[in-house]
């Protein structure tokens, strides 16, 4: 039975125990773009109660295991299988959700922007995020992922170097997406709707929170598992 300690990184913990991402999000602990720092460093920087968070983390993991859940050994999954998982799970979700959610963001901005000025910035941030992610997915599916699948079948040092160069650019774009999500999180008070929010307002915030969670998982799988296997 695994016991997580302050020497573990958030990225490695989420790799073993995906549900830990909920706890990390609640405590604003980065597990994707900047998830490679030991918890000790994170706790010290944020002045957090390490005992309380570790206790909750390990209790949650024990409960998760007791219900028959089993860790996914990502190291035993081929790069091509992981690419297919990202495309069919996370890219498919974004392709469907980004335009649909954009309509809700625009609606509450038009209706409530006058009394809730932060919705002006939310509208700008969301549309920038949408544009960035749509462009990013095209680059991955047309440029990066075919190279990775080719490397699985016919590896060469030259192809690996090309993949690493593209990966660096993709990680930079992941950082940009993560920063935009953090800004949206902050200006909406953690996607917490105001007391006078209408149903559309509440639905928009709930879907933004879901988008944040899925995108962080998406970036985590690429940065901390797929790209590291090709580093």
Topology:
Layout: H1 10-16, H2 20-26, H3 39-46, H4 50-66, H5 79-112, H6 118-153, H7 157-187, H8 199-229
Helix pairs in contact: 1-8, 5-6, 5-8, 6-7, 7-8
Describe the 3D structure.
The protein contains eight helices and no strands. It is 74% helix and 0% strand. Helix 1 (10-16) crosses helix 8. The protein has 231 residues and is mainly alpha-helical. The model has no long low-confidence stretch (mean pLDDT 92).
Helix-strand category: mainly alpha
Mean pLDDT: 92
The sequence of SSEs as H and E is: HHHHHHHH
The percent of residues in helical segments reads over 70%
* Percent range for β-strand residues: under 5%
Largest sheet: none
Overall shape: it is globular
Rg (CA only): 19 Å
Outline the low-pLDDT stretches. Answer: none
Continuous helix count:
8
Number of domains: 2
**How widely separated are the two ends?**
29 Å
Number of strands: 0
Keywords: Cytoplasm, Iron, Metal-binding
Subcellular location: Cytoplasm
Pfam family, one: Hemerythrin
InterPro entries: Hemerythrin-like, RIC_family
């Amino acid at each position: 039975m695994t016991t997580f300690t302050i020497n573990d990184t958030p990225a490695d913990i989420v790799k073993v125990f995906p549900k830990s991402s909920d706890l990390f999000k609640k405590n604003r602990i980065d597990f994707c773009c900047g998830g490679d720092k030991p918890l000790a460093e994170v706790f010290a920087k944020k002045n957090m109660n390490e005992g309380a968070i570790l206790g909750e983390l390990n209790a949650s993991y024990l409960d998760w295991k007791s219900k028959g859940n089993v860790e996914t050994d990502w190291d035993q999954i081929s790069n091509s299988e992981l690419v297919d998982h990202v495309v069919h799970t996370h890219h498919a979700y974004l392709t469907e959700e980004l335009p649909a959610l954009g309509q809700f963001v625009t609606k509450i901005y038009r209706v409530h922007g006058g009394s809730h000025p932060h919705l002006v910035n939310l509208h700008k941030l969301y549309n920038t995020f949408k544009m960035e992610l749509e462009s990013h997915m095209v680059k991955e599916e047309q440029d990066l992922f075919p190279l990775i699948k080719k490397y699985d079948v016919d590896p060469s040092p030259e192809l690996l170097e090309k993949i690493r160069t593209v990966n660096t650019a993709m990680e930079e774009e992941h950082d940009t997406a993560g920063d935009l999500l953090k800004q949206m999180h902050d200006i909406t008070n953690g996607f917490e709707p105001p007391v006078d929010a209408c149903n559309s307002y509440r639905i928009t915030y709930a879907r933004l929170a879901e988008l944040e969670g899925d995108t962080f998982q998406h970036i985590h799988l690429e940065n901390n598992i797929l790209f590291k296997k090709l580093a």
